[in-house]
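Standup notes
- DV: blocked on the single-chain target, sequence here:
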Amino acid sequence: MKTLRILAIDDHEMTMLGYKFILERLVFDDTNIIVDTANTFDTGKVRIEESVNSFNYDIIFLDVQLFPPDEEQPHNGEDLGVLARKLVPESKIVFMSSFSDNYRINSILKSVDPDGYLVKTDIDPKTLEDAIKTIIGGTPYYSAKVLSAIRKKMSNDIILDEKDKKILYHLSIGTKTKDLENHVQLSSSSIENRKRHLKLLFGTENKNDLALILEAKKRGFI
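- DV (later): unblocked, structure below
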C-alpha cells in the first residue's frame, strides 16, 4: 500500500483539525493518507526542515495568515511557501486561505508558484478530494475565485511594478497616503508622483483615491 504524506499548516486549530479529519478519510486506491499539522510559522518551518533528510511530504497545505490579524509578525504563509520551495522542491505546495483579493493571489503565484490555491469559501470535502487527485496527478488546481483573479490579471494591458502594486494595495485597505512610505520604502514626493501616474494609467486623473481603487479592483490589480 502506498502512503500519501500531507502537512497542513493553519493558525486556526479547528480549521486545521477539520482538514485533517476530511483528508484522512478520503479513499484513494491502495493509498494510506497520513496528515501532520502545525499552527504557527515556526512549528511549520520545523516540520518542513525535519522532513528534508527523513521523508518527503507529498503535499504541504499552507494558510497565508499564520497569526491573529491584530498581531505584528515578521513572517507569513507566503514566506513559508518560498522556504518550502527551496528546502523540499519535490513537495507539492497548496495554499488554502481566506484571502481572495487579486493582489495577494497574484503575489503568491509569482513568489511561490504553488501547485494549487483554494479560497476557503470555495472548499468542501468534494473540492478537497478533487484538488488532491488533480495535484498528485501533476496538474495545478485553482478554485473558482483564484481562476477569476488569474483571468483578470491576464486580460490587463497595464504593466505595474511592485511598488505601484503595493501603493494600490495599501490604499485599498485604508492606509493613509502619509503613511505609505512606511510600507513602500519611497519618499512622500515619490509616492505622490506615482499616485498621479497611476491615476493617468487608470483614467481617473481628475478623481479621488477611491475612484483609483475601484478602477484598479475592476481590472484585477487589487
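- Follow-up: The longest strand covers residues 2-9.
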